[in-house]
UniProtKB/TrEMBL annotation:
<feature type="domain" description="Ketoreductase">
    <location>
        <begin position="4"/>
        <end position="176"/>
    </location>
</feature>
<protein>
    <submittedName>
        <fullName>SDR family oxidoreductase</fullName>
    </submittedName>
</protein>
<keyword id="KW-0560">Oxidoreductase</keyword>
<dbReference type="InterPro" id="IPR036291">
    <property type="entry name" value="NAD(P)-bd_dom_sf"/>
</dbReference>
<dbReference type="InterPro" id="IPR002347">
    <property type="entry name" value="SDR_fam"/>
</dbReference>
<dbReference type="Pfam" id="PF13561">
    <property type="entry name" value="adh_short_C2"/>
</dbReference>
<comment type="similarity">
    <text>Belongs to the short-chain dehydrogenases/reductases (SDR) family.</text>
</comment>
<dbReference type="InterPro" id="IPR057326">
    <property type="entry name" value="KR_dom"/>
</dbReference>
<dbReference type="InterPro" id="IPR020904">
    <property type="entry name" value="Sc_DH/Rdtase_CS"/>
</dbReference>
Amino acid sequence: MNRSAVIVTGGSRGIGLAIVEKFVAQGRQVVACGRGVRPRHMDPSVEWVQADVSKSDDATYIVERAVQRFGRVGVLVNNAGIQIEKTVMESTDADWDEVMGINARGTFNLCRAVLPSMVQCGGSIINLGSISGQTADPSMAIYNASKAFVHGLTRSIAVDHGPRVRCNAVCPGWIMTAMAEDAFAMAENPERAKADALARHPAGRFGQPDDIAETVVWLASDAARFITGQCFVVDGGLTSASPLQPRFF
Ligand code: NDP
């Protein structure tokens, strides 16, 4: 069994929690973090660190706690993220600091904190990107840009720190979590927006956190040993369709 630790940022709910649970089910030693106190539902084997990934000292502390408790870190999953629904014209300095601070700098902070030991002992980093980092979701300017940063950083780490470190990104589509529900709630008619989005999924359903967790665990495993520097879209086929509407034909 692999005894190295797995760090999952933003492990309290949604996709992060599903990732934590999947690694725990595999018998892995997991360190999870979030800004709040330890969630009551968290498996007792999980080391919980109350930390804010946007702060570089907190990122260092998360890695130190993982090393103190489990010896070394074999896998880092940068999942913590937030979104703010605004255009460039609507966005404030505070919006930039918050979204870029967590999604972009937070991912960078954790990578920088874990890489010195990973380049010695080997490991795998998986970053949560988004389909929004490849095509622009309307009124999500800073969020879209923060996820494009994550995709670029993923490739840089793979290139700069291979072969000891593999680094990949998973780019979810619509995954039913608090974040997705909040986004639908912003629509003029949330029910219609949901029905319209669902109709665009060749897979016939929205994604579930478990769909992303399965991909993350696979990328961390030895089965993915020749895969690095890639961004994997997991969206039920949403972005495979031509943007042209059938009425044009
Ligand atoms: P949720 O809002 O459900 O969960 C986000 C998690 O991140 C929570 O555990 C939250 O805990 C934590 N978090 C937020 N800010 C920080 C911070 N500064 N430091 C530490 N932890 C933090 O989001 P999802 O599960 O939906 O999304 C997870 C990831 O997947 C994100 O990166 C998101 O951008 C990405 N994604 C999600 C999609 C979706 O449809 N759901 C689509 C595409 C990408 P707390 O607030 O307590 O700190």
